[in-house]
UniProtKB/TrEMBL annotation:
EC number: 1.17.7.3
Statement: the UniProt record of this protein carries the keyword Oxidoreductase: yes
Name of the protein this chain belongs to: 4-hydroxy-3-methylbut-2-en-1-yl diphosphate synthase (flavodoxin)
Pfam families referenced in this protein's UniProt entry, alphabetically: GcpE, GcpE_C
Phylogenetic placement of the source organism: Bacteria, Bacillati, Bacillota, Clostridia, Candidatus Paraimprobicoccus
Family assignment from sequence similarity: Belongs to the IspG family.
Role description: Converts 2C-methyl-D-erythritol 2,4-cyclodiphosphate (ME-2,4cPP) into 1-hydroxy-2-methyl-2-(E)-butenyl 4-diphosphate.
Catalysed reactions, as listed in the record: (2E)-4-hydroxy-3-methylbut-2-enyl diphosphate + oxidized [flavodoxin] + H2O + 2 H(+) = 2-C-methyl-D-erythritol 2,4-cyclic diphosphate + reduced [flavodoxin]
Top-level taxonomic group: Bacteria
Record carries keyword Isomerase: no
Length: 354
């Protein structure tokens, strides 16, 4: 990704930075206590950047609260009222997201740009197919990827005119194909970092499919610097899905990479339940920011060889299984203790105290 590097609090996005996973608080903005609890859960789950809706001035209290309770950067989501953006910056927010279609007054955008420049706070221009500028909509007659691109370019130029270039762009639509085309087009035209997402993607199941197809195909083409899997569900699930997507493309460098064989007639142990248990154990937050390839393989005949690249793994045998490191057998373990032994060895390797 050849994009410009942008700093959001203690996280960098763009250029050679790891792709960050974002989510958004989904608690009513006046329930300050629950907002803190959800934010802490998201931070623990591996969320890198957290967006919070700022629908009114009272909601700014969430920014003050969160700044003392979590370490990950906070993005204020602003619609319509530019003064909410100014107040959010004063409250210490790390990034502002504006929806260009609904802050039309250029003087207001200029003021937001000025205060963000003074504090070195980036602005995300969050183009959303549902709220394009009227003049762009009347030119294209309907929502098209070209119209979304034009909205983004128009707003980039506007911010640049006000000497502001600490910019991140997103071009979201609920239509996967349109979104992908729009991102591909804007990628050719600008070098600001891109935040990827499919908006209103849907329920947990459908939303994941749409997001994985859309965001995944862009990431495979080297497009995208930060992502959000938007689900009509618990935001922790958005974070987990985002991490899983990045892991599946080897773009998530900060976590345990678990591989498991599909099993076949050679296996004599229940690899399916073993891998599920392992997945649950190694998704615990204590393994965040740890780098290790772990293999769960069905048989000792092919397992260690097929997963030679793994740092550590287990393979099933006949009542006994084996534990191996880098393809070399280290010890034989009674089948019922295989997973326990693996976890113990992994924790030793990573220096984690249970
Ligand atoms: Fe089959 Fe063994 Fe390969 Fe698993 S590792 S798929 S059990 S041959």
């Amino acid at each position: 990704m050849n994009s410009k590097k942008v700093k959001i609090g203690n996280v960098y996005i763009g250029q050679d930075s790891p792709i960050s996973v974002q989510s958004m608080l989904k608690i009513k903005s006046d329930d300050f206590k629950k907002n803190i609890i959800q934010a802490q859960k998201l931070e623990k789950a591996g969320c890198d950047i957290l967006r919070v809706a700022v629908p009114n001035f009272e909601a700014i209290k969430n920014i003050y609260n969160l700044k003392t309770k979590i370490k990950i950067p906070i993005v204020a989501d602003i619609h319509f009222d530019y003064k909410l953006a100014l107040e959010s910056v004063s409250a210490g927010v790390d990034k502002i997201r504006i929806n260009p279609g609904n802050i039309a007054n250029q003087d207001h955008i200029k003021l937001i740009a000025k205060i963000c420049n003074e504090k070195n706070i980036p602005i995300r221009i969050g183009v959303n197919s549902g709220s394009l500028e009227r003049k762009i909509l009347s030119k294209y007659k309907k929502i098209t990827p070209e119209a979304m691109c034009e909205s983004a370019i128009y707003n980039i130029k506007l911010l640049e005119k006000f000497d502001f270039n600490n910019i991140v762009i997103s071009l979201k639509s609920s239509d996967v194909k349109k979104t992908v085309i729009a991102y591909k087009a804007i990628f050719q035209k600008i070098n600001y970092p891109l935040h990827l997402g499919i908006t209103e993607a849907g329920t947990e199941k459908l939303g994941k499919i749409k997001s994985f197809v859309g965001i995944g195909s862009l990431l495979l083409d080297g497009i995208g610097d930060t992502i959000r899997i938007t689900l009509t569900s618990d935001p922790v699930k958005e974070v987990k899905a985002g991490i899983d997507l990045l892991k599946s493309l080897n773009l998530y460098k900060k976590n345990i990479n678990l591989i498991s064989c599909p099993t076949c007639g050679r296996t004599k142990i229940d690899i399916i339940s073993l891998s599920k248990k392992a997945e649950k154990i190694f998704s615990n937050f204590k393994y965040n920011n740890k780098n290790l390839n772990i293999a769960i393989m069905g048989c000792e005949v092919n397992g260690p060889g097929e997963s030679k690249f793994a740092d550590i793994g287990i393979a099933g045998g006949n009542e006994f299984g084996i534990l191996f490191k880098k393809g070399k057998i280290v010890k034989k373990v009674e089948e019922k203790y295989l997973l326990k032994e693996l976890v113990k060895e992994v924790d030793d390797l990573l220096g984690i105290n249970l």
